[in-house]
Amino acid sequence: MTAPFTIRIFVPDGDPEGVRIIDRMNWTGLGLVFPRAKWPDVRQRPEMQRTGVYILVGYRGEEDDLPTLYIGQADGVGNRLDSHAAKKEFWDWGIIFVSSSTGLNRAHVTWLEYALLRQAAAANRCHLDNGNAPQEPALSEAEKADTQGFLAEILQILPLVGLRAFEIPKAVVPTGAPAQPLKRGEQDTVIVPAQKDGFEKAFLGEGVWHAIRISGGMLDKIKYIAGYQTHPISAITHYAPVARIEPYGESGKYKIILAEKATPITPIPYGDAPPGAMQSPRYTTFARLLEARKLTDLLGKG
Length: 302
Known about the structure:
The chain has two domains: 7-161, no CATH class; 189-299, ph1033 like domains (ph1033 like fold), CATH 3.10.590. It is 24% helix and 30% strand. It contains seven helices and 14 strands. The chain has helices at 39-42, 77-87, 106-123, 141-157, 196-206, 286-291, 296-299; strands spanning 7-10, 20-24, 29-35, 51-58, 68-75, 91-99, 127-128, 189-194, 208-212, 224-229, 235-248, 253-258, 263-269, 282-284. The strands form two sheets. Strands 1-2-3-6-4-5-7 form a seven-stranded mixed β-sheet. Strands 8, 9, 10, 11, 12, 13 and 14 form a seven-stranded mixed β-sheet that branches. Helix 3 crosses helix 4 (141-157). It is elongated and about 70 Å long. It starts with 6 loop residues before the first strand and ends with a helix.
């Protein structure tokens, strides 16, 4: 079991969405979270002269569900971030970690950069703007232990400032295919709209469906997923039992992992359903899915 902890957040300009300075009791580090627009002000702070590691966060396009990250380190992080402010367009906000004393040197932050890149790649919850991944730098046994401790503090702080890209996804609920269909009337199936390319690549090819919003009250009820293929097919064509549901991205969306290869069914056409009926996920029962002849057979409650 992880130990409970407290962090302190100081807001120097009184704006909770502006610059925030984060520290913890008995920690030698200091974090600075800031929106890109505030960089000229942050640049003047004395911490920018220190050796540190930083993470820049943003989205490359409106359709992106996963954030893009750039992870770096420098002796004097201010000069390096000046360069990124001028040359890197994607990032909207950043977080910098430095030592509150003189504890971090160039070897330490190089190791932190290496470890954060490795952790981000393992979690697979972001796109990395970094080019080549660095090799693990050599540290003495004692230095590595201390730096690993600093990394652990960073990884505890990041989710609290809205960045979960370094967390290995965990199943939200222990979902799975039931031994038999649930009682009639209990919604246990989510129907997702899918365009042809995504449906064939992800749903059929990879056995996953991601970037889906799921109502909180449905998370522990979903046992099946059905795929509605948009125009020109305009019909539900496959279903599969659900193995698990994991967080996906930073905006409250989820990834559904199929328990087995999707099963084709007699297509359930859009028919006389009202316009826009399948612009977002819909819920139904597995029994109804098996009996339906058209989409409107699935859209009612009970």
